[in-house]
Design brief:
The complex is a heterotrimer of chains A (about 270), B (about 400) and C (about 160). Chain A has 6 helices and 15 strands. By secondary structure, chain A is an alpha/beta fold. In chain A, a hairpin with a 5-residue loop joins strand 4 and strand 5. In chain B, about 30% of the residues lie in helices and about 25% in strands. Chain B is built from 14 helices and 15 strands. Chain C has a 4-stranded antiparallel β-sheet with strand order 1-8-3-6. Chain C has a 4-stranded antiparallel β-sheet with strand order 2-7-4-5, with no helix packed on it. With about 160 residues, chain C is of the alpha+beta class. Chain C has a single domain, classed as Jelly Rolls (Sandwich). Classes of the chains: A alpha/beta (about 270), B alpha+beta (about 400), C alpha+beta (about 160).
Amino acid sequence: MTLTPLPYRVDDRREETRDTVTFTLAPSGEPLAPFSPGQFAMVYAFGVGEIPVSVSRILDGSRLVHTVRAVGAVSRALCGLGPGAQVAVRGPFGTGWDTTAARGRDVLVVAGGIGLAPLRPLIDTVLAEPETYGRLNVLAGARSPGDLLYSDEVPFWRSPFAEFTVDRPSAGWTGRVGIVTGLIDEARFAPSGTTAFVCGPEVMIRATARALVHRGVDAARIQVSLERNMRCATGHCGHCQLGPLLLCRDGPVVGYDRAESLLTVREL
Amino acid sequence: MTGPAENRLPPGGVTEAVLDRSGLAALVTALRRRGRTVIGPTVRDGAIVLDELDSATALPYGWGVELEAGTYRLRRRDDGAAFAHSAGPQSWKSFLHPERVRQWSADRGPGGDLTVREERPERVSYAFLGVRPCDLRAIRILDRVMAGGRYHDPAYLSRRTGAFLIVVECTEPGATCFCVSMGTGPAADAGYDLALTEVVDAEGHRFLCRSGTEEGAAVLAELPRRAADDTTRTAAVLGVREAAERMGRSMPPVDLRTLMRDTLEADRWDDVTARCLSCGNCTMVCPTCFCTTTEDVTDLTGDHAERWRRWDSCYDLDFSLLHGGPVRATPRSRYRQWLTHKLGTWHDQFDSSGCVGCGRCIVWCPTGIDLTEEAHALHREAGGSQEAP
Amino acid sequence: MTTPAERPCGARLLAALPAGEREPLSSLARTVVLPAGTRVFEEGEEADRFWILCSGTVALDIEIPGRGRAVVETIGADGLLGWSWLCPPRQWHLGAETRDVVRAWEFDAAAVRALCAERPVLGLALVTLVAETIGERLRATRTRLLDLYGPPSDGPAS
C-alpha cells in the first residue's frame, strides 16, 4: 500500500530511554511488503498524524520494528501507545542501505543519537553474514549514558570494534566522552577498503563524512541517511526536496559524493 | 450513446476539417452527449476563467486580455474571436489535481480496532476545450510527476485517464508569454485529441480542426464541418507563426538548468527577495506546481478520522519544517527554491523543465516579479552576455 | 594498508614527521605502562611531559566543588595526551586519569622543546601536528555546545 495505510497492532513495547520507545507492530490484516535496512514507513497515530520512521530491525514474517523518539505531536502520541493499541502504516519507502556495495569490505557504522535506529538492521545484516563482509566497526554517539540505544546489544557488535561515546557523562559512567568522530582513529578498518554508513543529525553527518574522507575513505563509499520534511513519501508532495533530490524517492540513503555539495548550500 | 450519425462514420473518422461557430457549438454538445464534463474558458469576475461549459455560447467570444507583470485586464475585441486571449488565473491542474482531495478515512471501533477505507475517486470524464499548447505541455509534465514514477496518484489518474483534450493553438500571445523560449508553443505538436486554430479574416470566423487520436477523429466526424482548404490552412499556419514572433518575454538563451545550478549563491537572490512577499501566488497559478500537504482531521466523536491532501506552497514557512524549525527560514531561500526547482532541479527529478512559459506567475505576482527578468539577471551576474553562446 | 589499531605505537605521530626527523624524536620516547586509575597529572601542576597513547583510554577531568571530578573528554589509542607543555604558562588546565591499563610513549617536554629549537623542520612538523589535534578538539567541543542530540528547540538562536 502506498497512499492508504494498513492497520497494525502494537505487539510489544520496550522503553529504550526516557523519551524513546521500540515497538513491534503486527499486521491486523494484510501486511505491507518486506522492508530493507534503511527504508522507512509512514506511521499514523489515529487522529493525530503521520510521520516517517525507519525500520530498526527486520524480523522474519510480517511484523515491523520501529524505534520512535518523542519529539513532536505524532511521535509523542505513538510513544504513549501500549500493547494492543492500533496504528496504521504504509511503506516500504525510500532507498535502503546498499549492503551489496559493502561486500568483501570493512564496514564502518557511525551513528548519532536516534540515528542508530535505522543502522541497526544493517548491523544485523553484517553480523548475520560475517564471511561476506570485512571487519564491522560500530561508533555511536549519544547525549548521555541514559540516552544510549540498544546498549545491551553492543557487546555482540564488537567484531572487532564497537564503542559508544556521550556528550554529557553521568556519575559512574566509565565509557567514552566526546563526539563520535573522536572514535574513528581507534576503529579497525582499512580506509580504501571500507564502506561507511552514517546516520544522525546533519551536522554530525557532515563532520563524520569529512573526517572519513580526510582519512582516505572514498566519498562514494560513504552512505549517509538524510532527513527533510516529509508528507506523502511517494514523490508527489514536494516537501522532501534537497536540491535535485526527492529524499523520499532518491533517499533517505544517499552517497556522500552526491550529498556533499548539497549539504554545504545554506537553506537549500 | 451511439447515434445514427456515428453509424455513418467512415472508418478512422475525420483527420482535418474546418468548423465554423456552429461547428464549435456542436463540438460542446457532442462531448456532453458522450457524458463528458466540458471545461473551457468563460468570462467571470473580470477574468477569463476555466469552468464547466453548458454550451459554446459561454466561450469568451469577443474578449481579449491585457497582461503585464502584476496586471490582468479584460478588453473587448471587435473580431469576435473566442480564443484570442492567453492564460488566465487558473490552469487545468485545478481539475486534474484539485486543491483539496480526501485520500482515505479511518474509523476506530469500540475495541480500538482501526478500519481504513481508501477513497474511491469520483468518476469524472472530462473534456478540456481551449487548452493552450503551453498548458498541454503542463499537463504532460503533471502526468510525469503524478503518474510517471514508481507510485501513481489515484486521485490524479481518475481525472486524467481518458480526458479528452482540445488544444487551441495560440495566435494572440500575451505580453507575459514566452512559450517559444521554453519550446512549448505556440503551435501544438502532439498529445491532443483535437487541435483547433482560430482564423478570423475576410472569409469569416472559423477553426481549422485536426484530430490527433481516433476518438478525436470520431468526434470530428460527428460535427457539421467542411473540408479543409488551403486558404484556411495558410491563414492558420501564418497566424501561429506570427504569434511566435510576437512573444512578450524570453528566457536567456542558455541552459537554464546549468544556470540555476551554478548561481545558488548569486547576489541577485537578495535583490528579488527585496520584492518578493512570499505570498505563494506564483505557485498557485503555475500550471505545473504540484506541491501538497496533508491534513489529518477527526470528527467530534474522535472515532472517525480523515486524511485530506491540499495544495501547499514552497513559500510557506512550514513547508520545510524540520525538528521545530524551517530549513528555508529566509524568503531568499524560498524564492530560490521555487525558481531553481522550476527551471533547474525539475530536470533531475522529472526529466523535463517545470516551466512551460505561460507567464501566469508574472501576471499574478502582486509585486510584478518576472522570472524571465530574474533569469536574465542571474545570467548577467554569472558573466553571461545577452547573446547566444 | 594497515588499520590504525594494527599500526605500531606512535604511528600517526611519526607519519606526520619528515623521514629524517622521526628517529631524533622517537629516541626521546620512553614506553610507560600506567595501571587503571592512575592520576597522570592534575590541574595546576607543571606541564612537563606529554604522551602518545598506544592502547587504553585516559579521561580528562576538572574538579567541581560539590560535584567531584567531571569528565570532559576521553582520549583513546593513537591520541595525544597533553599539549599545555607547548606554550606558556605550561601548566595543566585539566586533570587526567587512566580508565584502564594504558600503554604510552612518554616524552620529556623540555627535551622535546630543546630538540625542536635545534631542528626547526621537526619543530614545525610537531607544532602542526599538535595544532591539528587542538583543532579537532576545539571542533568537537563546539559541536557538543550545539547539543545536537538534545530535545528539538525553536531553532538556532541566531
